[in-house]
Please model this.
Amino acid sequence: MKKPTDTKQQKPGSKERILQTAVSLFARHGFAGAGMRELAAEAGVNLSMVNYFFGSKKGLLKEILDSFFSGYLAIARENLAGAGALHAKLERFIASAVRYFDAERDSLIITISELPHDDPEIVEHKAGWARQMVAIINREICLPYAAESGQLIPPTCLAPMLTSLMASRFLFAPVMEKVTAGSYEAVNVEAYTKMIARILLQGLTEPENGAVEGYAQK
Model:
């Protein structure tokens, strides 16, 4: 005899539904273009419940940012820390970060693109997370590299540069598909990871011989 299904365990709670709906709406329409009433309707809750859990639309955006950044920082700490060759740690970090970006594509779009520079509260909120990432990049990449090469790369340059390079595939995919149909599938995630690591570590002028594995040339 089958046990009765516990629907409370299977269905996400109201707060989680609101958060998931907000991620989808903000990614599709932008923070400014997504209405709170539309969000509440799609999440199947009352507008008052959205305000109860998150306080405001801005509070909802902060929750999305916090969730994404905490995961990204955890990947940086896990893969960049400790002893070992710098290139090996970088390759490990890039591989994990790209997989994370692929799995959290909508949150990535919101985090990177929703930066209202005229809102000091949101700018400072992002800056708080950015300070932590910059500190990790400086400690685990920039300072060891400076010790090896005698050249110091400012972490405030390298951190956003590295993030943007990894994120570009996902941010520009809709546009690139209009340029060349099938361009997104042409390079799989593993090949993309190797491509970024090679460009970062060797530069464009010293590519490996042969085509990138996983790249479907047309």
Q: What stands out?
A: The chain has a mean pLDDT of 85.
